[in-house]
Amino acid sequence: MKALVYHGAGHKAWEDVEQPVIRDDTDAIVRVDATTICGTDLHILKGDVPAVTDGRILGHEAVGTVESIGTGVKRVKVGDKVLVSCVTACGSCRFCREGRFGQCLGGGGWILGNTIDGTQAEYVRVPFADNSTYPAPAGVADEELLMLADILPTGYEIGVLNGRIQPGDVVAVVGSGPIGLAAIIGAQLYSPSHIVAVDQADARLEAAKTFGADVVVNNSREDALAAVMALTDGLGADVAIEAVGVPATFELATQLIRPGGHVANIGVHGQPATLHLEDLWSRDVTITTGLVDTSSTPTLIKLVRSHQLDAARFVTHHFTLDQMDEAYDVFARAADTGALKVVITRLEP
Amino acid sequence: MKALVYHGAGHKAWEDVEQPVIRDDTDAIVRVDATTICGTDLHILKGDVPAVTDGRILGHEAVGTVESIGTGVKRVKVGDKVLVSCVTACGSCRFCREGRFGQCLGGGGWILGNTIDGTQAEYVRVPFADNSTYPAPAGVADEELLMLADILPTGYEIGVLNGRIQPGDVVAVVGSGPIGLAAIIGAQLYSPSHIVAVDQADARLEAAKTFGADVVVNNSREDALAAVMALTDGLGADVAIEAVGVPATFELATQLIRPGGHVANIGVHGQPATLHLEDLWSRDVTITTGLVDTSSTPTLIKLVRSHQLDAARFVTHHFTLDQMDEAYDVFARAADTGALKVVITRLEP
Amino acid sequence: MKALVYHGAGHKAWEDVEQPVIRDDTDAIVRVDATTICGTDLHILKGDVPAVTDGRILGHEAVGTVESIGTGVKRVKVGDKVLVSCVTACGSCRFCREGRFGQCLGGGGWILGNTIDGTQAEYVRVPFADNSTYPAPAGVADEELLMLADILPTGYEIGVLNGRIQPGDVVAVVGSGPIGLAAIIGAQLYSPSHIVAVDQADARLEAAKTFGADVVVNNSREDALAAVMALTDGLGADVAIEAVGVPATFELATQLIRPGGHVANIGVHGQPATLHLEDLWSRDVTITTGLVDTSSTPTLIKLVRSHQLDAARFVTHHFTLDQMDEAYDVFARAADTGALKVVITRLEP
Amino acid sequence: MKALVYHGAGHKAWEDVEQPVIRDDTDAIVRVDATTICGTDLHILKGDVPAVTDGRILGHEAVGTVESIGTGVKRVKVGDKVLVSCVTACGSCRFCREGRFGQCLGGGGWILGNTIDGTQAEYVRVPFADNSTYPAPAGVADEELLMLADILPTGYEIGVLNGRIQPGDVVAVVGSGPIGLAAIIGAQLYSPSHIVAVDQADARLEAAKTFGADVVVNNSREDALAAVMALTDGLGADVAIEAVGVPATFELATQLIRPGGHVANIGVHGQPATLHLEDLWSRDVTITTGLVDTSSTPTLIKLVRSHQLDAARFVTHHFTLDQMDEAYDVFARAADTGALKVVITRLEP
User: Count of CB contacts below 8 A, B vs C?
Assistant: First the structure.
């Protein structure tokens, strides 16, 4: 089969590889009907994720059809259309028992396209298939479902739930790339009174408005702190979500927050930030970090089905698997192409 | 009357001042029967707290007897023996309505010995007396009750409750000065399986043992991370409490924590710390800061009465008010004197 | 002045009474600009609330203008336009410190139109004015604000918050009178996937649809349990809200609930219900009751201002104070008149 | 092998049966080293649990040694000493993903000695062995560990955690049989200020004292409500735990509770109770029911290891498997024999 293979920093190829086979009795082999590219894949290609080694098939998001299953698979059947989640769960370890699947100690967690071969391929082996896939519900298109593989649960769990957004809150989202937009769309499920999007690119702020931000601040030329204080009688935001992954945006998030507020970090950071404890020690702030657990996936599927979450809104470009290189190119040049999420589907039939 | 007056960095005097009078109808004038000195008072004397200006009477902890009350005081009566809390609460602002009295927007918060005259005096004016004092319960000695003015609620609310200690947890407390000991004694109310005390002074670690730590680590010569990992199958502490207030101890606390754990900062910081988001972003950690609300005071009073909290254990030295200078000297030289809390009582009768 | 006075079961009169005066220093006298009638007022008139005695002015909801204040009132000024909440809070007792104002031990709680004279009058004395009124925000009409005096916080706190509605939930609301509609409108702030309204009157179910229920069941002829099970794969509703106050509807709510679900009782009950513990003991259910605290009032005001809560939707009829008897008549005959909330305003100018 | 077999209401026999074999790949066969009898077993013998049919081996608690495992078992190995929990968990269904194992939809829940053969036998087949057993920790005796199979997690999860006991609380426990004692011992992990035990048998109240109750009330001759009110300034208990399972004790628990308090029902009920909503509707009470999930088992194991939970205290009598009938007799006549938990061990060697 063909797959997108990583060959060290800066190198990848859409090339022939062996088709995957069942290794453990809880595995499923899934034919990939649709996959996508994550910002993390770009980080890997830069060489920023040392766990990913030469020869690894990338990708951790897919919707597909079950081709075969191991003898221990009980809930998934051959022929099922399923969502392949970015997080794999053994279902038995201490963290899986707590619903903290992203921290799985039993061989799961984020492994697809990282420590084992991933979903940017014609077929993928999915370990612990009973706990790591979700049946596709009737009436939900593949590309909508695909948005539940990573970006929507990440924005919802690590941004919205960790941030403990409540009705009436003023929520500041720092960064309006895809993950910031996922936080914005997820935040609305809790009816905040205002969502303030902060970014340095006007195009992304325009996107933020269409996703639901009612106040936008271009902090390359405007004062985000002043904007938030003006909305909150000088107290600060109830919740500030960091959705970039660099020190400056994290530090901004900690400035925007009111006494008693929550700073929810979603960004993937490569270096330390400064925590201004000389200001924050007495301000009753809560700061959270997190890797998605996808524990919210069943909830989000219900919300897509009931049309309360418009998952398709993220999809800006469509490709087929043989256009993988072009898909990467368009996604990597998002500033020019306006790409949010690209959907890459298998060739018909 | 006599009072301990601040006269700029490095200068204080036990001198004659005007006796306080009722200014607002919710004030009470309280005769100080017992007061104490807080580490924060030493910070003020160094000039580290600019809000405190020349002429201010210091002190924010007292047990006393009500001498007079304003016309709006309803719950406190002349002659009542009361605990004067370090935090004053207007009772009506947004934060007081939420029980977040430390962030009071209506003129309260930590004001005694800070922005208004304090308790290291023969008499003190207590604003919002109905919300800022607690009736002394029968059977509790003044010096026990005095420990509930600041140190015990601070350790309990900002360390134990913010850290969300649960039965069976492994709790690491970084710093075994008085506030670290308050966290240790408070932590036991939730039955952790282990309390690991970390400090660089053997004498303080000895105190930590008597207060309830079952593992002690002198991190001037021992490896605190290794000690915690050995107790937790390599996962890290469920809760790490920072009780010093310098960058190195905060950073240590963030290293000791397990995925999904809580870091509760109690320390008063004068400079920023480094937050290693490159390690922490994916580890599901929660970091909290806070100023005590004293919302737990009624609970802690119940626990002192039922002998589940041994408040008197903190008291190492006794003085009378006219020995204020000596009391400060003993408390400031805690490393030599072994002082934890000094109790300073009025002259008889 | 004129007021609506209760004269024993079945008797009331719009008659001349003494104008109220300041009694305690924390009182305010408020000129009533708009008031309304609650289902509880009808219960009182039937003689069901023995605490209400002959001569009492009824009513516990108002928007008005402050005429005078006691010497201890700090946050409210003469001339302020304010919301008079149905719950009065001393601000200092154990329950007020916890935000549980409805259980105030210091002389507050639900007292207006109950144990002291109420708001269906030209003027009303409001005790603890600082804690029992809210400044009218710019851009919110009196009649919108009036809906925040009781019905909206009751539906939100006792139905939605006690029921712990989460995004994606299936919520069953038993009873579609005004309080059930308040629960329906409040539930949407948490984005449930379905709201099932259950009632025996088609007209009320039509109202439920316009308020946001997407499934309606007339349980005089349809099977509510079957309808809920069909929506939930046979598990039951995540949250069931009782909004009637009779045994049959409470018992239905406990049947509709899934394992692990929440039953939130809002209804005012006059007799006991049967709790089927032989079925429920093993089903992990949580059942809550409650009197509104109005702790959510500031949040709800923000949501009205940001147009996320359409408070005006409840208002079906308008009267002036001199039409009080007609207003009562229309409200009491809601089945015929379609009345939800009637707004009664003072005579111009 | 020999096993205790149910033969319809009133009939049981310790008789020869087929030794169990692996049926599903996630099964383990466990040699029973120690088992015990639960009050529920007595209910079954009376014919009260229709799901249990003629021929069923009873018992749902054991400590044993793994004899063989299915091909899909990953965490348990032959020769391991394990705790066999009363609750079996598939690990993949909606409720197992939430940690609500008692409600497992995938074939687990309480099945041992109920819908499949149980532990009162020389060997037992344990489905979903990875999720339904726990490795025996070093230094914990079999009979201590055996107390974690059912009684201790039931008292802790359904009584203490559902009741949300907090430090300083006054906790009333209605019923001082084994499950009430488990609630009393578990409650102390949260440092309540008082534990009030209520029962009609002086012998059980004596046991309650040794387990940690500081106030005991024999409500055959004393007034439990008066006793609780005297301790709580007339407000009522913060938490009331029902540990009997009859209407009168449940109704008493709902009377003892303060406004805002929690009633946690542990009792297994065979008939409905009366819920006095005419009193309770406005009192902000929370009532919970539940079947144990054994999600707390790892925590409780840590607490037994750290000597904070004295599990052995429940063990009053010892038998060997061939004395099963005698063990049942002693346990069934607990009022005479003083039996709390009987431990039944296999014959040596």
Answer: 45
Mutate to test the interface with A, among C148, C166, C191, C307 (most CBs of A within 10 A): C191
Is B91–C131 a contact, with Cβ atoms under 8 angstroms apart? yes
Q: Which chains touch A (3 or more CB pairs under 8 A)?
A: B, C, D
- Residue A295: list chain D partners with CB under 8 A: 97
Residues of chain B with CATH 3.40.50.720: 152-288
Three-state secondary-structure class, residue C177:
coil
Residue-level pLDDT at A56: 98
Confidence of residue A348 (pLDDT cuts 50, 70, 90): confident
Test the C interface: residue of A297, A308, A310 with most C CBs within 10 Å: A308
Tokens 């048998």 — which residue?
A: D201
| CB count in 10 Å sphere of residue B322 | 12
Give me the CATH code for the A2-150+294-345 domain, please.
Answer: 3.90.180.10
Q: Does A303 touch chain C (CB under 8 A)?
A: yes
**pLDDT class of A349 with cuts at 50, 70, 90:** low
| Cβ of residue D302 closer than 8 Å to a chain A Cβ | no
Q: Does C104 touch chain D (CB under 8 A)?
A: no
Among all chains, which residue has been given the structure tokens 């063989």? D68
Instruction: Please give the distance of CA A75 from its chain centroid, rounded to a whole number.
Output: 25
CB D34, CB D344: distance < 8 Å: yes
Chain D nearest-CA distance from B170, in A, is: 10
Q: How many residues does chain D have?
A: 349
The rounded mean pLDDT for chain A is 97
Within chain D, residue ranges assigned H as helices are 39-45, 94-97, 129-132, 142-146, 151-154, 178-187, 202-211, 224-231, 247-256, 277-280, 297-305, 324-332, 334-337
The distance of A92 to chain D (nearest Cα, Å) reads: 6
Total residues belonging to chain A: 349
**Across A306-314, average pLDDT:** 94
Pick from D103, D259, D267: which is nearest to C259 by CB?
Answer: D103
- Indicate where chain D has its CATH 3.90.180.10 domain(s): 2-150+294-345
**Which residue reads 């870091």 in tokens?**
B263
Residues of chain B with pLDDT under 50: none
Query: Chain D within 8 Å of C106 (Cβ-Cβ)?
Result: no
Give pLDDT, residue B349.
57
Q: Could you please report the per-residue DSSP string of D192-211?
A: -SEEEEEES-HHHHHHHHHH
Task: State the complex-level ipTM.
Answer: 0.97
Beta strands A286-288 and A257-265 are: parallel
Residue D349 confidence (pLDDT):
57
Q: What part of B 112-131 touches C (C-beta under 8 Å)?
A: 130-131
| pLDDT for res B347 | 83
Q: Which helix (H) or strand (E) holds B137?
A: none
> Distance between CA A93 and CA A107 in Å, rounded?
9
d(CA D288, CA C275): 12
Over residues C248-260, mean pLDDT? 98
Residue of chain A minimizing CA distance to C300: A168
Give tens-digit pLDDT for D78-133.
999 999 999 999 999 999 999 999 999 999 999 999 999 999 999 999 999 999 99
Contact C260 D100 (CB under 8 A): yes
Tell me the pLDDT of chain D averaged across its residues.
97
- Residues near A130 by beta carbon (within 8 Å), at least 6 away in sequence: A26, A73, A74, A75, A76, A91, D92
- How far apart (Å, rounded) are the C-alpha atoms in residues D63 and D88? 15
Fold exhibited by the domain A152-288: Rossmann fold (3.40.50)
Distance from C-alpha of D237 to C-alpha of D36, rounded to nearest angstrom: 33
Closest CA to C254 of C281, C290, C217, C220: C281
